[in-house]
Design goal:
The protein has 516 residues and is of the alpha+beta class. The protein has 14 helices and 27 strands. Bound molecules: adenosine-5'-triphosphate (ATP).
């Protein structure tokens, strides 16, 4: 376990705002709870994360490794609509079951997820008829309620509200003044709905998708019928999802609009557990490869009693965010979903979704095969791109007071939104012209992957500091020597070390640092 103190979320959020990674949505109107926009650096960082996923999950799945069947993994993409036929969400269980039990505060009108509410109670023994003090972690109510509880009971402990039998008369809501303010838990559907067409009528009600995965299941048959994919294979989908989260919080971690990158990998039931293990392990390796290596990242296998009835295994890749520390928060879930989703869509839509596997099944007297018909099992690695960006920002944020630029963002060069910066040391003696030529060369080569910046204003130290905060891995400075020996200095963001390299090698140098 790390003993390092968690990084300050306030410092990370302030750098994100200051440097244009993340802005509050609708900020000039006071913001809107649960919605965030990305600024120039954040938009490119998120694009790089999405593309790294696309490259390593769809175009060159699992980095070209062979799967448990001994063959290279095959995956294809789809891009499906945010609004689907409402029956999709009946089949998936979201209309009936996408509910969180909620408690409302009658006094403050606050609404909380029942499983998030904690209470302070006496450390030993019963509270009797004294109030017990509810709070939600990381909210101002936490310390306020703690003080009140300590005053009432002395030594206290904190337990989930759900563990207290019949607390309702005694419990004092997080920001309430009187006990008995919380209602008993009630179900609340997290799907946003709207109306299609001109007539505002319940029969035209549709939902904004709460996940991208269902779009894959409903197009499974089309993909099989119109392409040459054979089971086992995967279909990937990325895009916005919406959940009317009751308590959006922790910066972008729990938002109401967010982006997912999901893969459904279809396989024969007999091979499904092997594929589950394959994807679970690869997803962990992948997050490590883009800079989340170390003790802040864990793979948590769900206990048997946490699994859905159809699942033979689920694990979460979890990251130790500053606001969850010393605990972890989910970055991605990898679930063995059996054939639950295809079964449901087959039942509700009436369409035949069985796959005819002509590589298996009975061999006929003429040497051909009858083919085995079955609903493939599915392994679902479901990642959140916004949580991914947040983890990269939290991991990358580094403070070192001994440096001239004390705050810097250690982003992996593959993900960094600015790939390189070019500085003429001074704006004279031909240096800007040489820098301009190098800038044009690098820009032409790397614009698909990120920005190449040219900066000739301010002191060189300030220019390095700006790039350090933006997470730019390399700065190249054209100085008095350059015209004489065709070398520039290459400065490393993380160590501050400088080496001289030939100007003709800069592009190759940047490409090698990005890798991928
Ligand atoms: P949680 O338990 O945190 O609500 P979940 O288990 O409901 O998450 P999934 O339905 O498995 O999440 O969604 C897959 C991924 O989508 C999550 O691992 C996460 O990265 C992302 N995600 C889910 N809900 C949100 C949200 N409200 N804001 C940002 N990302 C989210």
């Amino acid at each position: 376990m790390s003993t390092a103190a968690p990084k300050s979320m306030d410092a990370i959020m302030s750098l994100c705002k200051r440097r244009g990674f993340v802005y509050q949505a609708s900020e000039i109107y006071g913001g809107i709870n649960g919605f965030w926009d990305y600024g120039p650096l954040g938009a490119q960082l998120k694009k790089n994360l999405r593309e790294a996923w696309w490259q390593d999950m769809i175009m060159n799945p699992a980095w070209g490794q062979k799967g448990p069947n001994g063959q290279r993994v095959k995956c294809v993409p789809v891009e499906t609509c945010i609004i689907q036929h409402p029956k999709v969400w009946e089949a998936s269980g979201h209309v009936g079951g996408f509910n969180d039990p909620m408690v409302d505060c009658k006094e403050t009108k606050g609404r909380y997820r029942y499983d998030h509410v904690m209470v302070y109670v006496p450390e030993a023994g019963e509270a009797g008829d004294k109030p017990i003090f509810a709070y939600v972690g990381d909210q101002p109510s936490e310390s306020k309620q703690k003080k009140k509880a300590e005053k009432t009971f002395g030594a206290i402990k904190s337990v989930p509200l759900s563990t207290i039998p019949q607390p309702w008369a005694r419990v004092m809501g997080p920001d309430a003044e009187k006990p008995g303010s919380l209602t008993e838990p009630r179900m609340f559907n997290l799907m946003f709905d709207t109306i299609t067409g001109a007539i505002r009528d319940e029969s035209n009600k549709v939902y904004l998708r709460p996940e991208t995965a269902q779009g894959i299941f409903v197009q499974f048959k089309n993909v099989v019928d119109t392409t040459r994919v054979r089971v086992p294979f995967g279909i990937g989908n990325t895009g916005k999802s919406f959940r009317n989260e009751v308590t959006p919080r922790n910066f972008t971690f729990r938002s109401r609009e967010f982006e997912q990158a999901e893969l459904e990998f279809f396989c024969h039931p007999d091979e499904s557990v092997a594929w589950y293990k394959f994807w679970r392990d690869f997803r962990m390796d992948w997050w490590k490869s883009i800079g989340l290596a170390g003790e802040n990242l864990i793979l948590r296998e769900h206990e048997k009693d946490e699994l859905s009835h159809y699942s033979q295994g689920t694990s979460d890749v979890e990251y130790r965010f500053p606001f969850t520390s010393p605990g972890f928060g989910e970055l991605e879930g990898i679930a063995h979903r059996g054939n639950y989703d295809l079964t449901q869509h087959q039942k509700v839509s009436g369409a035949k979704l069985e796959y005819n596997d002509t590589d298996r099944g009975e061999i006929l007297p003429n040497g051909g095969r009858r083919g085995e018909r079955y609903l493939p099992h599915c392994i679902e690695p479901a990642a959140g791109l916004d949580r991914g960006v947040l983890a990269l920002l939290c991991e990358g944020y580094t403070k070192d007071e001994s440096r001239p630029s004390p705050e810097f963002m250690k982003l992996h060069p593959r993900l960094a939104p600015i790939k390189a910066a070019i500085f003429p040391l001074v704006a004279k003696d031909g240096m800007p012209e040489i820098a301009e030529t190098l800038h044009a060369e690098l820009n032409a080569k790397f614009w698909r992957l990120g920005a190449v910046e040219m900066d000739e204003k301010q002191s060189i130290g300030k220019r390095y500091a700006r790039m350090d905060e933006a997470g730019c891995p390399w700065c190249f400075t054209v100085d008095g020597e350059t015209a004489k020996d065709q070398t520039v200095t290459a400065r490393n963001r993380d160590t501050g070390q400088q080496t001289r390299i030939n100007i003709s090698k800069v592009s190759e140098f940047v490409a090698n640092s990005i890798g991928g």
